[in-house]
Amino acid sequence: MPEGDLSRHQRHADLCLHWGQQRYNALVNLSALIPLVREKLPPVLLDLLDIAIGVYLADIAVLRGRNEAWTRTYDMLIPARNRTFWQHNRDRLTAMLHALTRDNFRLDFCSHQPQLELLEPGGDGEQAFGAEEAAQQIDCASALSGGLDSLAGAVMLMRTDRSPLFVMHQSGNPDVRASQSTVMDTLESFRPGRGVFTGLLVQPRSAPNARFAFPASREREPSRRSRSLLFMTLLITGAYIAGVQEAYLCENGILSVALPLSSGRIGGLSTRSTHPAVLADFNSLLQAADIPVTLVNPFIYQTKAELIRDILRPVLTPDQIRSTISCWMVGRRNRQCGGCVPCLLRRLSLLAAGLPDEAYETDPLACPDDYRGTDAYGNVMDLLSQAVYLRSATDAQLLMHWPQLLDLPTVGVSIEDALATYRRFADEVWETVHQHFPESARLMETS
After folding, report:
1. Any idea where the domains of the chain sit in the sequence?
2. Are 19 and 52 in contact (CB under 8 A)?
3. Which of 115, 224, 271, 392 gets the most CB atoms within 10 Å of its CB?
4. Distance CA 168, CA 231 (A)
5. 170 pLDDT more than 50
6. Contact 77, 205 (CB under 8 A)
7. Least confident of 65-69, 113-117, 422-426
């Protein structure tokens, strides 16, 4: 929560989250957007920013347990400028947070203390890179994470002569920042002056002089299911400030629909960061708040290999494409780990699209037996087994196996097209594994 006098609730809280000044326990710097701000932002949007930042930081601060203790319960008191709106829409917000994180949230709202806002017009913030040349031409906003899919979204927009405001969340991870910097250089060389790049900083701050101590790095939760709420809110804020109504959050259909790889991954063990239902809930909240921006994922019916082959390869070099990062363990390993689900999907997709293989820290696809008993082996087996089942089962069997597919039409997604996307993905996995990884191919033959 922003600075304010300590209330009785704060004094008895397990953790108070404060940002905006040096002695507080989180760093938030949105100054790259300030040159674009022409008028005060609506209070409800500033509240949404505070909520997204607060939930993201709370997510990091509280470790999950194992098995039944995976789900956490939060009681949060949040200062709000438009308290009436958030009290009225509390159920809508908590349902979206549960869908995204599978945690339980009990939210209450108190009056917001007047203070200097993070996004005051006419401030002295840093100029966004390219803002002077391109700010007047911005016609959409797009999230830029440093990964393959967001790069594909950026290239798609630029190839169709759009002029996006690119919004990046900058954490304290140096590898992610390096990837984002390289992606910016790639896009600027591809279409000079076409986009405006804004890096927005939100991260915990551990310092001996902080008024409220944030847990040390080793005590922080790594799963961070709420991170996409922060991405979406920063993106929507950038779009609103730029005066555009389209905001693109680009992710391939496999990770968006996110069918659990196995029965052991149901619920919070499968990420739903860009699931169509989460995006629909977020858009519904924006509509209720009279924020005229719509969040869109244009790649819901594409595989990652198709994005690489059809969008990136025609205009970028293999090195530019591979300069992105996909690994969940980025920053905690010397290179991309090779064993997490995003690494496996990335590797198979690059090869399926005809690009050279990359070096990873581990190689469970080439030598699966060497990794028995590890999470990497489980990820390989679940991914390969899912591909085999997708190739052999009928549509009716798939719907029985994953009944959550039946909910897709309620959020504007075609079941038939989603299944077709998954079947193409399964064919990509089968063909790529048989071409490049004979030991894993043997496992597919016997599964």
Report:
1. 1-321, 326-446
2. no
3. 271
4. 8
5. yes
6. no
7. 113-117
User: If residue 437 lies in a helix (H) or strand (E), which one and from where to where?
Assistant: none
- Between residues 415 and 271, the one the model is more confident about: 415
CA atoms within a 13 Å half-sphere pointing along the CA-CB vector of 36: 29
- 55: nearest Cα among 221, 255, 174: 221
pLDDT in tens, 193-219: 889 999 999 998 776 666 677 888 888
Q: Which residue has the higher pLDDT, 30 or 224?
A: 30
CA atoms 175, 178, 184, 188: torsion sign: negative
Tokens 């300030």, residue located:
34
pLDDT at 224: 80
Collapsing DSSP to helix, strand or coil, 7 comes out as coil
Strands 196-204 and 26-29: antiparallel
- CATH level 3 topology of 1-321: Rossmann fold (3.40.50)
The Cα–Cα gap between 144 and 272 comes to 18
pLDDT digits (tens, 9 = 90+) for 85-99: 999 999 999 999 999
Structure tokens at 410: 């309620």
CB 250 within 8 A of CB 210: no
Residue 160 vs residues 153, 311, 373: alpha-carbon distances, Å: 11, 11, 47
Average confidence (pLDDT) over 362-380: 96
The per-residue pLDDT of the chain, averaged, comes to 88
The H or E element that residue 81 is part of is none
Asked if 141 and 237 count as a contact pair (C-beta separation under 8 A), the reply is: no
Report which residue type is found at 164.
P
Residues written for the chain: 447
